[in-house]
Amino acid sequence: MTRLRAPVLGLALGLAAALGAPSSGHAAEPPSCEAEADCGRLLGRVRVAGERESVVGARVVVMPAAPRPHEPGPPLWTRGATTDADGRFVIDALPAGPVRVVVLHEGYERLEAEATVVSAANVSIELYVAADSAHEYRTVVHARPSVQAGEARSTVLSREEVQTMPGSQGDALRALQNLPGVARPPGGLGLLVLRGAPPWQSLTMLGEHPLPRAFHALPLAAVVQSESLDGLELQPSNASARYGPLSGGVVQLQPHRPRSDAVHGHGELDITGANASVEGPVGNGSYMVAARRGWIDAVLQGAARVTNVGYILPGLWDYQAWLVLPVVGDGELELRALGAGDRVRNGHYDPIEHELVEAFEFRSQFHRFDLVGRWSLGRTKLMLSPTLRIEQDHATVTDFIGVWRRAVSPGWRAELDTRLAPRARLVVGTDGTVSPFRARVHEGAIFAQGELLSESIRRSRGLEAVGAAYAIVHLGRDRWRISPGVRAQGFMFGDERLSALDPRVGARFALGDRTTLDLGLGRYSQPAITQVGLTGDLVNDLVDQVAPTAVLPPALVSSFEPRVPANARAVGLRVITATQASASVEVELTRQLDVRVGAFVRDFYDPRGANIPVPGGSTIIGGAPATGLDYGGELLLRRRITRRLYGWVAYTIMRSVREGLDGPLPGDFDQRHNLVALASYRLPRGWRIGGRFRVTSGNPYPPVVGVAENQLGPSVASDPIYGVDNSERFPPFHQLDLRIDKVWLRPQSKITAYLDVLNVYNRQNVEAWIYQVDFRGRIAGLGLPILPVLGVRIDY
Amino acid sequence: MWCSARQRASDPAEGPFGPFVPCAGPPGPVSPIVLAPQRKAWLFLGLLAACAEEYRSPGVLTDDAVVMGISLSVIEDGPHAGELGPLPSDRPRAEVLPGDTVELDALVANVDGVLALDDAAWVLCGDLNGEGCLSSLRRQGEHGGGLPPCREDSAAHSYACLAGRGDRPQLVMPEVATDPRAPSLESLRLFARVGVIVARPGGPTTDECLRQLVLGPRDDLWGCGIGARDVPYGPDFRLSEMLGELGIPVEHEVLPPVVARFLPPNAALQIEEVLVGDFDDPRIGGFYSVDEVIEVAVDSIVVLAPVVSVRDQQFVLLNTGPDSWVGVPEFVAYNVWSDREPGGVPTFGYGGFVDDTRLHMPSDPGPMRLYFTVIDSRQAISWFTLDLQVVAR
Fold first, then answer.
1. pLDDT, position A129
2. Beta pairing, strands B381-391 & B293-297
3. Fewest CB atoms within 10 Å of the CB: A174, A472, A685, A745?
């Protein structure tokens, strides 16, 4: 029988003796066994409570059960051992009878247990020690930064930070929204807006390849669970030549490295859905499988039965499967499969037919399969990674509009990293994707007396491809590093072919023992296909059908755009380019407290980003250039996660300007001020409490400045007249979120209950304007009210 | 709650033109009065909180001027209008051809009544990218620096032009233009829309409204009544002949001119009488002149059916296949506005040749004025007002 106990003073003296520390008395060896039959053997294994990970190098001390803790004085005898690589220990020649076992290890709470030694027998015990969360040197799993020292500064979030951050519900990418340079997206949803760049201009990488999209369709959550990640890294601008095509920033998600010590896993349940994972050893390698199913749609559908009110019903699922295997030499092979799907419906429950009557449906899914091989050949490292991605989008508005797109896209990345000289390293690589796609647009718009009078089906198919080769040289060592690089890219759409050459450079200089200066400058390019989505027009039309008088932030709408050609005859390829520059100074104030101050600028050019109307009513699609300028400054005061506390204060001030045919206008994400203060503190007895306060400027939107009656056929519609685009703003946003976690540690498992309370003081933030049907008057569409989210999680 | 396809198929509010109409949505193909005040719960995009608020019924007038209808009547035939079928002298042709002289008229009202058009500005405009007249006005301002008066060749040079000022201006419709080197439908230029801008008393002037629409910036147009509609070009066979003369082939089936010339062109019908009844009590009701004040009971559901006289009932030929045509009575739809908030649910409008409009009367006695526009399937439009006196039961 094993029992955990709190440490006691009396025992400390005995232990000090046992460990050889100076003491007033010395414990003796146990009485020698007169016969082997009089003695027994104690063997066992020491593991981390809740994690079951082996504790290596722990000191295990055995002593007679008496004296009891309230009886001061050294033990009569002690005998000890140190755990091996598997956490196992063996202690021979122990007198039969009850004994106390004490386990000591740096970074863990002391464990005291009882056992009974049996003559001429082996007694086996399992000991579980709890990690000492208050210890100064406790282990924190950080993501492996992919950004080299000579490249522009990135920010890394650890797995623990992601999973305990208040207001982010454990979602990795929503956690990123608390960092400087990342805007609060409209509606509080999960879009990544990096330094003014719309989400589609930035890149979210998982491992070696980009994700087709970072968030689920509505976007309530990232498409990859945080359990499947070891951390993430944000580079809001000036990414290295390794990354592209993009004109914004990069988020690099680090796949979790599955544990190989034993089978572990977790299960989690809350009002929004359930998720689970399992990981463990397989052969010489390890594996992990994780899956999630959101059920907000089911909850709301139940509500629709009661209220007979139509709701937007978002359903989502995703999965991740990782396999890591050693291969010849010191090589390593990783196999990854991941996918995500969404089904967003709008409708109401028909009490007569007992079914959901749908008015709008959007379905989207992707699957990705990666193979990654890594080898070290002397001073050279080689990485090869083919991948295959399958995507399918489908959207319908009743029987009238339907769009569908499917693409099967093989891709690759190969990289060679070799040391040329003590102060020079060369990285060369290539990456790309080939995407043959098929699309269909169906319109059946005109009915008369119940019969379909006309419909049109437009089918298109084509080939999109991007390919790149890059080279980066890392120069310098301790005091200075500079990393010039170049990325040559080719883009193809149908018969059109374009290219871009993007030079980039990053540098880091030590300005003292605690101060570093980071600089970045580079050009960035990405392809865009005129008439293939991303403008928001198609989704805007769909939204107009569902909520015709709702005025949403334009950036929100455009982010859901399915990439379907609206007019197969008018498609065309163009290359969007951006020049990015950034600089930051980081000062290590104390061992755990850093401050970083930086500035950035992004000059954006789209050669055919604006349409030109011509007399007579037609329009030249993409006939005019559109330009933009994003610039601003950032401040990050961060307490790194070490002992009990982590947190930061992040402030961003910025301007985002777009210039098209109508002159300079605020960009969709011109969020001028963004302040986030966040802290999480670990309390004794498994409690953790955290809070996040955020205040931001309201996002711009096009105001309605009048109404025009528009007679079309027999009907008269009241159409809004919009003023200057993005010339008004939603009111400032502010919100406080609090989170409380309680952990119950069991030898084999860990149970966590959490309460994440969003919008604690119930601030009524305006996220949209909903107009009267004739647009003469409006009411506010409010964001989340106070919302407590209670969840339970079990790790084993 | 939003209507589904299944709902709409059986919904009496479904008009024959209706592709997709939210239950509480905009006027669409049926009467603007489609729903009484009700509370709506919104859960938009899954995250927006419910925001319960009283909605004003669509079609209930406020201080803002609403352009309910714009009509075009041919008062003098142009060069393309020869050999058209005959029309009664008091029923002017309502489908127009380039070169015709037309008179423009509009019904503009707010909660205080019909607005005078003495200072109204009338425009012809293109339909830029399907965005309607307003985009054309703006583009004309950017490229032309102002709004030129309409001339015979305006369509070739302008995005929009000024068709006239004041009450019932007369205008010679500009000619169609195309590229003579490569005539095609894509290069065809004509003014597809006609619009009117009327300032509300106490608001900005018509000139100020026009300035914002043409020259920008558009920052406050709340005092401006603005409306537009398609120019009802026709008859179809004559348009086809004109395109042929321009060298543009017509691909769709066209009624042979030898037949079409026997059919009179379209004219707007005139409503002089309405049938008024009580939805719950079929014994109540009768025919009333549109000039009378009609007493109705509070909280009653009143059935209103404009009476289309026999002389206004026209037939049109629908193409049902190669060289196959069938004659059907022309369809008529109604749009209704009110100067008072109607009562509670159920209230819905219903347009159609033999159909009626049902309105839930308010709970408080008092006068109530209804504004009806009547439009046929070839977009000829007319209007009348109906004065009700809501009385206690």
1. 86
2. parallel
3. A685
CA angle A287, A288, A294 (to 5 degrees): 165
Q: Write out pLDDT tens, residues B25-52.
A: 222 223 333 222 222 223 333 334 334 3
Instruction: Respond yes or no on whether ipTM tops 0.95.
Output: no
Residue A269: count other Cβ atoms within 10 Å of its Cβ.
Answer: 14
pLDDT digit string, tens, across residues A10-50: 334 344 444 443 334 455 677 776 666 678 889 889 988 87
Lowest-confidence segment of A1-15, A433-447, A595-609, A771-785 by average pLDDT: A1-15
Question: In whole angstroms, what is the distance from residue B106 CA to residue B115 CA?
Answer: 10
Q: Which residue of A has its CA nearest to B158?
A: A615
Tokens coding B340: 């008072």
The residues with which B96 forms a beta bridge, in sequence order, are: B233
Q: B102 is written with which tokens?
A: 């037309």
**What's the DSSP call for residue B263?**
S
Q: Tell me the three state secondary structure of residue A721.
A: strand
Residue of chain B with shortest Cα separation from A399: B5
Q: DSSP states of B280-312 as a string?
A: S-TTSEEEEETTSEEEEETT-EEEEEEPPPGGG
DSSP code of A301? H
- Helices in A165-218 by DSSP H: which ranges? 172-176
- The torsion angles phi and psi of A114, rounded to 5 degrees, stand at -120, 150
> Which of A397, A704, A710 is the mutation pick for testing B, counting most B CBs within 10 A?
A710
- The single residue listed with the structure tokens 């319960």 is B52
Q: Of B228, B104, B122, which Cα lies nearest the Cα of B170? A: B104
Q: Where do the H-state alpha helices sit in A244-295?
A: none
- Distance in angstroms (rounded) separating the CA atoms of residues B137 and B133: 6
- Phi first, then psi, for residue A390 (nearest 5°) are -120, 125
**Interhelix angle for B133-144 vs B206-214, to 10°?**
80
Tokens describing residue A623? 């006939």
- How many CA atoms are closer than 13 Å to the CA of B67, on its beta-carbon side? 30
| Mean predicted confidence (pLDDT) in A126-153 | 58
DSSP state of B246: T
Question: Tokens 């707007």 belong to which residue?
Answer: B268
Phi, psi of A470 (to 5 degrees): -140, 155
Six-digit token string for B169 = 């201006």
* Three-state DSSP class for residue A302: helix
A399–B5 CB contact, under 8 Å: yes
Q: Are B280 and B346 in contact (CB under 8 A)?
A: no
pLDDT, chain B, mean: 78
- Contact A359/B3, CB-based, under 8 Å? yes
Query: Which residue does chain A place closest to B24, by CA atoms?
Result: A773
Work out the mean pLDDT of chain A and round it to a whole number.
81
Tell me: the pLDDT tens digits for A605-635? 988 766 655 444 445 555 677 889 999 999 9
pTM above threshold 0.80: no
